[in-house]
Amino acid sequence: MAARLPRPRRFDVYIAAGGLLGGLLLWGVGLATRPHTEVYVLLPGRWPVLLPLFVMAGCELLRRAAPRTALLTGTAAIVLDTLTQGNLVTILMYTDLMYAAVLYGTPASARRIPRITGLLSVIGAVVPFALWREPEVLLIGVVTGIVAFGPAATGLIVRNHRDAAESARLRAEQTALLAEMDRTQAVTAERARMARELHDMVANHLSAIAIHSTAALSLDDPKTSQDALVVIRENSVEGLSEMRRLIGILRDSSGDLEPAAAPTLDGLGALVTGARANGLDVTLENTGQGEVPTPVELAAYRIVQESLTNALKHSDSGRVTVSLAQRNGSLVVTVTSPYGDRDAPRAPGSGAGLVGMRERAALLDGTFEAGPEDSPDGKIWAVRAALPIVEGESE
After folding, report:
1. CB 120 within 8 A of CB 145
2. Stated pTM of the model
3. Which residues, 6+ apart, have CB-to-CB distance to 145 below 8 Å?
């Protein structure tokens, strides 16, 4: 089955129709490019002029749909036109075919056509002059340059500008896409950071409230209930204060509110004291020495805080040990607590605590592991994090 030619564009149809009508008008009034007495006119008379005119008009229909086919066919038509008296519109349509072949053709054609037409223009001027030594024959090269090389060079310039504009548009789209990706990643990272902060600061207080309120409801002892209510009030006030601070920072569009100072390792003592007030038997062993970067201090504090919260909710009765030490250029945080087969935690949880601790360690290129282990005192739940003591990614 023969391949079908592409459908011509509407604008190309207008060009072809206009060229054909213009050529017929010149032909009708008898205006030709060469007199019939010219020695090179091998097909004299008016009628032979129409054949290359109609062929060239047909090629204009394919100037964009099939530029290479249109140019090759048009070249044959322009050669035929040189053997007749000629038609100016036929020549003009050929210059448009040359321009379109460079502009709409393949990149290889766009590179070759200007070189070939430029070479033909030079040959058309040099060779006849070398043979006949007549200055007038230089006009052959000039005409070739005007008809072929000029349109080809113009098409190459326009194509280069068009390609440059397209490249600039694509770069702009890529830049916008990358900016949107960066914005999305920044929003996601900020949401994750706020989720970790909210969970670490508030979950501890809410867990204590849930546990002590359960104890107050289940035991018919006024003294126990009174103690539980005291713990509940302290944790609710502290949790509410931290929630208000976070909400204030989030809602302050002017940026006037400054976040509270990030917790440091010096605050672990107060953290452990609060855990003891909540009913945990906690021992702190802090052998860390030397300066520790702020991001590492914050991550270590939050890991200890979340581990104590989990111990409050999940562990059996027994000693909870918090240990910090510097080894091999890292701050090693270890929290162990008794591990039993409790059917359900003493307070509900979302399971995001371990995820948050693992994320904090990963942001500093550290390691994190948590799980049950065997020890001389029985089965324990151990949380271990190694945080490199170098300037890492801040929160």
Report:
1. no
2. 0.55
3. 117, 118, 121, 124
